[in-house]
Structures are given as structure tokens and as C-alpha cells.
Write a structure and sequence with these properties.
The protein has 219 residues and is mainly α. The chain contains 9 helices and 4 strands, in the order ααββααααααββα.
């Protein structure tokens, strides 16, 4: 279809120039704009004299139309397997960018092959979790409240798990947008961390007698 459109456009343009006695800008423009035609013109005035369809160029364009070449090295793939693998290149580049930006994995400092394998495994798990966070962010109402999935993580970053020796663990309360995030992800807020939670501990009374109520004395 693109070839037919190009041939029709070039033929109509050349016919109009031939009828009006128009001239070309230079020889390079003739080859560039009318590549499928053999154009005859006056070299001195660049005025068109005649034109004829170049059958060989058209046949070559038709023969190569819809085909492209992919060069591989060190792999034993068939044509369709190579196409499926290389067809994911754009998506893979997005994942690489996500790992470099969000996970700060632009440099892998490893001193052994085992360490590199371990880091790659952790990076793969992190990529799965990060992709899931992005999916929830885009498919729920969180997309209206946060401009990116990183803002969701920043919002939850203030939550802390406090642990003291010989004492029970304590989680800081969930407030504001943190509650909406938990609902979107289907997380259950830990007991005692809800926004409506109030401590059951009674205030301690001070030692000694309570102070007498103040009364006004008449003058």
C-alpha cells in the first residue's frame, strides 16, 4: 500500500511538472523525491523533458517489502523464535530503566560469581514487586492521588516497627492516605494501628492528696 501511494504521488507530481514546464532544484532532489522513476531533464536549466517508471526498482521494492533482517550472535534460534525474543526489546528496555532508576541498580558491585547471582535474584524479586505496585497504582483510584508509584512508597516510608528488649513490638499508627493505600492493595491494618485506635491504658494518678477546689471569697 505504501509503495502504491509513493508511485501515485511521484507520477502525479512529475506529470504536473512536465505539463507546466517546471524545473528541479538540483540533481540530488530528483533522485531523492522521484526514486522510482527515470527522469530526463536539461542539465543546464534543470527543466523536465520526460520520465519513465523504473521497473527494476519497483520489483526490488516489492520483493523486499514487509521483510527485515535481525542479526544474532551466539544463539541458535529459528526465524520466528528470534522475532519473538527481539520483539520484547522495547519492553525489556523499560524494565532495565525501571531497575536503574527505582531500584538504583545501575552499578552491580560484585566480587564473586555467587554474589552476582544472588544480587540478580534479589533484583528480579524487586522488579516483580515494583511492577505489581505500578499495576495497582494504575488500576485503582490511587492513580488520581499520586503522580507515580514512588510517591506511594514514600507515603508508607514513615511507618516504623519499634522493637525494644524484653518488650512487645509496636507499629506506628496508619494515618491519612496510608489507610487508602492499604485498602487498594488489600492489606489489613495491624490491630492497634487503626486511625480510630485509642489507648486503653488509664492515666496514672499523682501521689498525695488531690488539690482542694478553688473558691471565690466574698469581699
Amino acid at each position: 500500500m505504501e509503495l502504491d501511494i509513493a508511485l501515485s504521488y511521484q507520477e502525479a507530481s512529475l506529470a504536473e511538472l512536465l505539463q507546466s514546464g517546471g524545473a528541479f532544484a538540483d540533481a540530488a532532489a530528483v533522485k531523492r523525491e522521484y526514486s522510482f522513476y527515470q527522469v530526463t531533464y536539461d542539465p543546464a536549466t534543470m527543466v523536465i523533458k520526460s520520465f519513465e517508471l523504473d521497473e527494476k526498482k519497483v520489483e526490488k521494492a516489492q520483493r523486499l517489502s514487509g521483510f527485515f533482517a535481525i542479526m544474532t550472535h551466539g544463539v541458535d534460534y529459528s526465524a520466528m523464535e528470534t522475532f519473538r525474543v527481539y520483539g520484547l526489546r522495547d519492553e525489556q528496555e523499560k524494565y532495565f530503566q525501571q531497575m536503574k532508576d527505582q531500584m538504583v541498580a545501575d552499578r552491580q558491585r560484585n566480587w564473586s560469581e555467587e554474589g552476582k547471582i544472588g544480587r540478580l535474584f534479589i533484583l528480579f524479586v524487586s522488579l516483580v514487586l515494583s511492577s505489581w505496585v505500578r499495576h495497582i497504582w494504575k488500576s485503582t483510584e490511587l492513580y488520581e492521588y499520586f503522580s507515580s508509584s514512588l510517591e506511594i512508597l514514600d507515603e508508607m516510608r514513615s511507618i516504623r516497627l519499634i522493637e525494644h528488649t524484653n518488650r512487645a513490638k509496636m507499629i506506628t499508627p496508619f494515618v491519612g492516605a496510608q489507610v487508602d493505600i492499604c485498602e487498594a492493595f488489600g492489606f489489613k491494618i495491624p490491630v492497634g494501628c487503626e486511625p480510630t485506635y485509642t489507648s486503653r491504658q488509664k492515666p496514672k494518678r499523682k501521689r498525695g492528696r488531690p488539690p482542694k477546689p478553688k473558691t471565690e471569697r466574698g469581699l
